[in-house]
Predict the structure.
Amino acid sequence: MSLSGSLLRSCGVLFFSFGCNTAAIAVQEPSGIDWASRFGVLLVDAEEAPLLIKTLPARRVAVREDGIVIRVSAAEAKARRKRGYRYLTDPPFKYIDPEIEDRLSSADPAVWWAGYKDEELVERIIRNLAQNYPEHTTLFEIGRTHRNRPILALRLASGLRPELRPAFLFNGGHHGNEPLSIEYALDVARTLLSATPARGNAAALSIPSAEARTYLKYMAEFQIWIVPLVNPDGLHTFWNHSQLAGRRNGRAQGVDLNRNYPFYWNSGIRGASSDAPGSVFYRGPAPGSEPETRAMMRLADERRFVVSLSYHTFATKVLVPYTTSGAMTSVPVTGWRFGSELVSAGRSNRPDKEYKAVRNLYPVDGTDQDWLAHAFGTLAFIVEGSYQTPDFPTGGRASIEGMRGLSLRSLSLYAEGPTIQVTVLDPSGLPARARVRRLDQAVMEGEAHETQARTGRFDFVLDGPGETVIQAVHLGREGFRAQTKVSCRSGICPVTIRLTGAMDPDQWVAQ
Ligand SMILES: [Zn+2]
């Protein structure tokens, strides 16, 4: 059956929103896109429940004070609803996927991996990976949620001083009602770690040796950050209270975290976000007001990601920045080649739709993607997976496997270049915090990108082979500056720019 007439089940793909959660439009989607669409949930009297369970394909999923909760087929539920049965319009997801209880009660990590995860299982899995792969992972708590749950990050990197290397971010679960997005992020960790000598990783994949070598190299040369669950409070709500409300964070009225980032926050663009607490697109009281948003912003400021994939469900698209309507991208534009290559590496595993790179799906503002692109020049993509929350063993696994190539392609694309890896040194030869820009690029949104203080580095991933002129200006002592012409055809082209102490701009030295 289709989802027509159903409640909001996605980022808004099923909705044409004007900032409220009532303007539903029916969008025909094939059955199986969302597991919940196959079922209906009824609340029946204790006396009647055994008979129904015996005679119908029905499953008892909860015992409550007001009755027994049973899961039946969507058609059965519809028919009984007409006959006056009590029907739950927005059941918690644990009524759709009651096996979550088995996963929670198991001590075996292989069982935890075998279905969708709630916030507790995500935490167990991350801690388990950190324990099993001490040489390749480090666990970080990057913040706490409104309801004081930890927001955890797993850094994949081997060897010494990974903080000096190019950083990549894979994050999921900004929206707690998109558990498949969490799977995509976790899958990156499990795939890369499967290349290492097995240490009891319950989810280890069989990786051909050539690929294993590549993955080990990524972990030796990069720092790869996995934040599988940005919004643990929302995921808790999704499983235990309401699928709809699970989209937002744990604030009383719930904030849509992917409308809360500062870039174009409250842009005034019609329908992009809402100032109404209670709306599914509520942007929050101020830019970056939410602890979850701030945790991600702090992490990004510290690590200066060169590439970020932010997983959502389920438009089957890669959004290339800026996705905010009205925001202008610097010219020449970078990001389209990268986004298109990502798309080519992904498989939707849906018969009716393949991945596609687009600028946007519908009006938005305050997204993590655009904030990252603007603040740090990150090649930041929102990656909308190919299903909502499909039946895990079939559609779920297929979608996760189809995403894998797309995710890993972000690492190989950076390495294949052309990527100009600029290191700016001050006159004494130490890494410098400097403002860097391409002089051949017209800046449209006041972007002012800086090198990372720790490394003096900033990366320009070009849209194709070519040359450019890079200018670096010391932050604080603007007399120290330099510019240099760089050409890069492929791969990583390292360039060192040494700032000179000339105070007179006419003496800027090209090196
Ligand atoms: Zn989303």
Q: What stands out?
A: The first helix runs from residue 49 to 55. Residues 11, 174-175, 178, 312 surround zinc ion (CB under 6 Å).
